[in-house]
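In the current project phase, the collection of sequences with tokenised folds has grown. A sample record is quoted in full directly below:
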Amino acid sequence: MIKLVNICKSYQAGSQTIKALDNLNLEIRDGDFLAVVGHSGSGKTTLLNVLACYDDFDSGIYMYDGKNVGSFDSRKKTAFCRHEVGTVFQEYHLLPFLNVYENIMLPSRYSHAKITRNTIDNTLKSLKTGDIGNKYPHQLSGGQKQRVAIARTLLRDVRTILADEPTGALDVQNGRKIVGFFRKMNSQGLTVIMVTHDIALARQARRIAVMENGHVVAERDLLSS
């Protein structure tokens, strides 16, 4: 379980202090699929950055599976990022000079995991990408690029997936397909936390959390599974 208690995070913008997270409280169960919605500037992306340990927080408590993440040193944070959480970004973050196989294998160089091309092909097949292993990013559609980014995260064998506006650069049809893949991963036991501005897509999750001014102002359980 993920538990956030009174999390605060501020940024300096010139002489102005911006409270990105303001005494935020949130619990996320193992195997949950949570959609986080809210207006631009409400703190959604900052929340994901804190969960992924990309950003430190100023005060509060962040518990993950009974461990106090706020007490982690740099070595523990690195291990946490490699083995527990994986992030899927709107921008894909594929290196243009590497083909699909190479882009997916890149993170394994740092975790020393052994990923074969056959394993990648099977994962890409499950995401319905077609035979694209030898193609380069400029040869892929937006939907294919996002599925490659998802495959890269899945093959890290993490327990929690953080998705930051993963459908924002896609058309409606591809956006629905991507959320469908997240639903499938969630049904297999992965915890999924997805930030989205699209309420229709958010309703495909198990729960919705609404953010405003840096904290959660409403939560709702959904009937979807």
In short: The longest strand covers residues 16-28.
